[in-house]
Amino acid sequence: MVEKWIQILRDYKWQIVVPSGIIVAIATVFVMGQTAHTEEQISLTELATSSEQVVEQPSSSHSESQLVVDVKGAVRKPGIYHLSIGSRIHDAVEAAGGLAETADSKSINLAQKLSDEGVVYVATKEEAISLIPASSANGDKGEKGSLVNLNTATEADLQTISGIGAKRAADIIAYRESNGPFQSVDDLKNVSGIGGKRLEMIRPYVTVD
């Protein structure tokens, strides 16, 4: 039986060897093609990841080079604005469309530098307040000891604040005596004659601690 198979292999060896070789060659080419395709996919994935990192880096750098300010009052387009580090109040006002016709240009220092998270408030001519100092224009509150305590201040103390005259100081004292201590600076809105705009003018100078 074994001799019979050996004889068959001898008689048909080319018919067996050639197809087998072709099959092996095809299988080899297929495996190599799959390997190359996988390597190409890995390379493309790495390239895409690298590109994303390159794109994200400028975004982070761009964010660090900006500051955000809230422009309020007598400007044409009040709102939140993103400006370059080193910008001045003039730049913030221009970004907000410029001064409104009712604006009192004497109420702000246009040459003053801005600070991040600051507030720029432009008063109207009717509000007739004095020049807003640096602590108010750029949002810094200054030293805590320099603030007027709404719960202990006298009328004379309150009148040292720009925008509060004798009548308004008396109203604040009367409100405190009738309703008890102020719980927050926002409670000033409950005092007669103090609206949202005037509150923003007063806020940098007062505390309830």
TrEMBL record:
The keyword Transmembrane applies. Residues 156-175, 186-205 form the Helix-hairpin-helix DNA-binding motif class domain. This is ComEA family DNA-binding protein. GO terms for molecular function: DNA binding. InterPro entries: Competence_ComEA_HhH (IPR004509), Endo/Exo/Phosphatase_dom_1 (IPR051675), Hlx-hairpin-Hlx_DNA-bd_motif (IPR003583), RuvA_2-like (IPR010994), Soluble_ligand-bd (IPR019554). Keywords: DNA-binding, Membrane, Transmembrane, Transmembrane helix. It comes from Streptococcus zhangguiae. It comes from the Bacteria. The chain crosses the membrane at residues 12-33. One of its GO terms (biological process) is DNA repair. It holds the Pfam family HHH_3. PANTHER family: ENDONUCLEASE/EXONUCLEASE/PHOSPHATASE FAMILY DOMAIN-CONTAINING PROTEIN 1, ENDONUCLEASE_EXONUCLEASE_PHOSPHATASE FAMILY DOMAIN-CONTAINING PROTEIN 1. One of its GO terms (cellular component) is type II protein secretion system complex. Gene3D superfamilies: Outer membrane lipoprotein wza domain like, Tex RuvX-like domain-like.
